[in-house]
Amino acid sequence: MTAPLISVKDLTIRFTTDEGLVTAVDRVSFDIAPGEVLGLVGESGSGKSVTAKALMRLNAGNTRYDEKSRIILNTGGEEIDVLSLKKPNDLRVVRGGAISMIFQEPMASFAPAITIGDQMVEQLLIHTDMTKAEAKEHSIEMLARVGIPEPARRFGQYAFEFSGGMRQRAMIAMALSTRPKLLIADEPTTALDVTIQAQVIDLMKDLVDEFHMAILFITHDLGVIAQTADRVAVMYLGELVETGEVRHVIREPHHPYTQGLLNALPKLDDLTAELTPVPGDIPSPLERPSGCVFHTRCPDLFSDRCKQENPELLKDARGRLVACHLVEEKGVQTKVPAAKTGAKSGAKTKAKSSARKSGTGKGKAK
Fold first, then answer.
1. Which long-range contacts (CB under 8 A, 24 or more apart) does 78-85 make?
2. What is the phi/psi pair of residue 145, to 5°?
3. Looking at the DSSP assignment, which residues form a beta bridge with residue 64?
4. How far is residue 82's CA from residue 143's CA, in Å, rounded to a whole number?
5. Per-residue pLDDT tens for 115-156?
6. CATH 3.40.50.300 spans which residues of the chain?
7. Are strands 79-81 and 70-74 parallel, antiparallel or unpaired?
8. Is 20 exposed, middle or buried, given 0-12, 13-18 or 19+ CB atoms closer than 10 A?
9. Distances from the Cα of 211 to the Cαs of 74, 166, 172, 348, in angstroms?
10. What is the spatial distance between Cα 43 and Cα 41, in angstroms, rounded to a whole number?
11. Which one, 232, 270, 286, 312, has least CB within 10 Å?
12. CATH class of 1-98+180-356
């Protein structure tokens, strides 16, 4: 079995605030294999972005990581414990080197008074041994690769001179220019119209195959994940509640929260059907419910156990992990340690990548 590119083990993140320590992420574990796309799904406030930023140590200064938490990056030559890195030069191996990130609104990520090209060149000079001339040539090539017309002219323009879709393409070009092993895409299509969303998704599919790059794709939209990911991890209030292969989770969700997210999607076979949102609002991390964190909104609440005992992640024969007392009562699952959320083998990931490229093998709602 191919070693995971990155392993997140028992990740617990707290923030120090005036009200005390606030738990934003609680005992989250997952692996990502080389060339794999893992979708991280959940509502705003579920801990998706906090989890993703931890992989690059980008969270705020008031962040506290639990002593048991581990983020292990396999660069091929060595394993790096990301949470143990202290020096800026050591962090640069991760930030913009082995891992790059694109954000929901690139306008807020680009420096407004520096041209797109100069920002790309600066990054390459920091993370590679290219000369300035080589970095410029490579940057123009990357702008062309992501579908930006007249890349040599666009190289000298500022972010405000680009449309929303072109800015996102430029952000992707910049993120990929250093050939990272892992790309973190944090809600990369949310601010775009539907047509541009589809173009960006298709572009990212192509780039995964071309660069054999892994992606952590963060979104609140399971419909987007169905088009892009190999596996999906569903988060709620800082905890993983369900993980598995996309095709299995989309067709037959086990956790009531996952089912709620799917119910909120438009039905293509019945455009007149009303959307059914998940009832209620996600609680504040300052007021985490006892027991199952979803029990205050769960339509399948069936016993006091849900209110008193936090369910373990349980595993079925297909490797799906679900944290739900009702699922356990039905006898569908068998207990496994939460940290064993292993990445797929290289062969299976490669097969899925080929299916993505040909447009087959995707998980689709039935």
1. 82/54, 82/55, 82/56, 82/57, 83/54, 83/57, 85/57
2. -65, -30
3. 14
4. 30
5. 999 999 999 999 999 999 999 999 999 999 999 999 999 999
6. 1-98+180-356
7. antiparallel
8. exposed
9. 17, 21, 13, 17
10. 7
11. 270
12. alpha beta
In the predicted model, what is the mean pLDDT of the chain? 86
Single-letter residue type at 357: K
**Rounded Cα–Cα distance for residues 123 and 326 (Å):** 50
pTM: 0.86
pLDDT tens for 83-97 read 999 888 889 889 888
State the pairing for strand pair 63-65/6-17.
antiparallel
C-alpha span between 233 and 217 (Å, rounded): 10
Letter for the amino acid at 135? A
CA 184 – CA 187 distance, rounded (Å): 10
* Four-residue CA torsion sign, 221, 222, 227, 231: positive
Two tokens, residue 173: 């070009």
CA distance 99 to 247: 27
Tell me which residue of 6, 82, 91, 74 sits closest to 40, measured CA to CA. 6
d(CA 240, CA 186): 17
